[in-house]
């Protein structure tokens, strides 16, 4: 019995895939809260949050590759997805103490999910040409899963180092085609050519929406807190308006044209495996990270809108926007064939705001950054480039 999706038409996202995504709504919230720490973000909490996000993204995107090839509406895949959900939920729940008392829980859950997922794929692909690809992936996942477990039982910098090594090796696996001695390597024109680029693009766009949802939740909950406490002055109204407009502008910039262009390129290219890998697997976590940092900044805008020269607020407001624009520019460099000039101008604008940030309030800085993003949205709408020719430089 074959377990592969049919390729008669573009694959649609299934209900079980959307159900799987719900875990990552909670996971993104946990990462955002970890970034904020007890009161303000620190370089330590930023580094830890980046590492945790990388682990969560790896767990999510590796699963997305499998459900692109294998039919998630078949019982074995449903059981695999539900098991992955359970492991992901454990990892997400343990995030507040991932670097102290519950590191081993994170490491074990991550390894069970990472190795188990690939093992299921190997078993279900028996007799298929794609099985060799997943035998190689299983080899790499076993290595990184073991590093995650060992790191979970280690302490301090050893834990950080081992988990970082696991994430980096997972990334390098895709770069070198999961090369294994005597088993060869996977290639985009061979093993990955059967990927459904439109489905993969749609799935990654869903994760962008998950991250944007965190910004909306923080804006709504912060406003609710102020209303409960009887606070409704200019700063509260301003914080609400600016954080909401900022989230809407990020959505507009991504989904107005670029999202559809990316889906079209991924669906029509002769090398969907390469497009899916570079534009989505590798570049999209930068976009997601920018949104999460921006969401954390939104909370700081509500907490201290009139303060000046607050480093944590300044660098989350500017850093989140810069990360998003950088990731989006790289993404457009793939789907449109060149890095957009407007994005480079916007990054220069963010740099200028960094220079003057010490002399303006947090609320004013948020307004200026929102103006940069809105301006970029308007600029991007004027770009005449409907061909969306992919251009990959690796």
Element layout with pairings:
Blueprint: H1 15-36, H2 43-69, H3 75-93, H4 103-124, H5 131-153, H6 156-175, H7 197-228, H8 234-268, H9 272-282, H10 284-303, H11 311-335, H12 341-356, H13 362-382
Structure, described:
InterPro entries: Low_temperature_requirement_A. Keywords: Membrane, Transmembrane, Transmembrane helix. The chain crosses the membrane at residues 12-29, 49-67, 79-99, 105-125, 137-154, 160-183, 204-224, 236-255, 275-297, 312-332, 339-356, 362-379. Pfam families: LtrA. This is Low temperature requirement protein LtrA. This protein has helices at 15-36, 43-69, 75-93, 103-124, 131-153, 156-175, 197-228, 234-268, 272-282, 284-303, 311-335, 341-356, 362-382. The protein has 13 helices and no strands. The model is unreliable at 384-388 (pLDDT under 50). The protein folds into two domains: 15-175, no CATH class; 198-382. With 394 residues, it is mainly α. Helices cover 74% and strands 0% of the residues.
Radius of gyration equals 21 Å
Instruction: Enumerate how many helices there are, as a single number.
Output: 13
Give the rounded overall mean pLDDT. 93
Helical fraction: over 70%
Oligomer: single chain
Strand content: under 5%
Secondary structure tally: strands: 0
Shape: globular
Provide the low-confidence segments as ranges.
384-388
How many domain units? 2
Terminal CA distance: 38 Å
């Amino acid at each position: 019995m074959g377990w592969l999706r049919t390729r008669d038409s573009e694959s649609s996202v299934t209900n079980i895939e959307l159900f799987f995504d719900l875990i990552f709504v909670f996971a993104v919230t946990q990462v955002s809260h970890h970034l904020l720490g007890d009161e303000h973000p620190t370089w330590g909490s930023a580094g830890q949050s980046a590492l945790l996000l990388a682990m969560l993204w790896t767990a999510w995107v590796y699963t997305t590759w499998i459900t692109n090839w294998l039919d998630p509406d078949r019982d074995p895949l449903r059981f695999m997805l539900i098991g992955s959900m359970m492991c992901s939920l454990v990892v997400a729940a343990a995030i507040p103490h991932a670097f102290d008392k519950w590191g081993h829980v994170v490491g074990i859950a991550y390894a069970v999910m990472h190795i188990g997922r690939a093992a299921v794929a190997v078993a279900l692909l028996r007799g298929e040409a794609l099985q060799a690809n997943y035998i190689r992936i299983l080899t790499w996942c076993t290595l990184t899963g073991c590093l995650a477990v060992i790191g979970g039982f280690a302490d301090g910098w050893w834990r950080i180092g081992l988990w970082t090594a696991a994430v980096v090796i997972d990334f390098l696996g895709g770069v070198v085609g999961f090369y294994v001695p005597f088993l060869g390597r996977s290639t985009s024109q061979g093993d990955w050519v059967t990927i459904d680029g439109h489905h993969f693009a749609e799935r990654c766009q869903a994760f962008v929406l998950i991250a944007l949802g965190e910004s909306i939740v923080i804006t709504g909950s912060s406003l609710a807190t102020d209303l409960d406490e009887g606070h409704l002055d200019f700063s509260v109204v301003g914080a609400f308006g600016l954080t909401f407009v900022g989230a809407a502008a990020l959505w507009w910039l991504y989904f107005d044209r670029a999202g559809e262009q990316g889906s079209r390129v991924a669906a029509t290219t002769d090398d969907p495996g390469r497009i899916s890998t570079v534009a989505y697997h590798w570049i999209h976590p930068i976009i997601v990270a920018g949104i999460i940092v921006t969401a954390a900044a939104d909370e700081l805008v509500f907490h201290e809108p009139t303060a000046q020269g607050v480093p944590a607020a300044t660098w989350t407001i500017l850093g989140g926007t810069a990360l998003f624009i950088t990731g989006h520019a790289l993404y457009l460099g793939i789907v449109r064939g060149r890095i957009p000039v407007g994005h480079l101008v916007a990054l220069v604008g963010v740099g200028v705001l960094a220079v003057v940030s010490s002399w303006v309030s947090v609320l004013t800085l948020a307004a200026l950054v929102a103006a940069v993003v809105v301006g970029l949205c308007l600029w991007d709408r004027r770009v005449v480039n409907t061909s969306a020719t992919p251009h990959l430089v690796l």
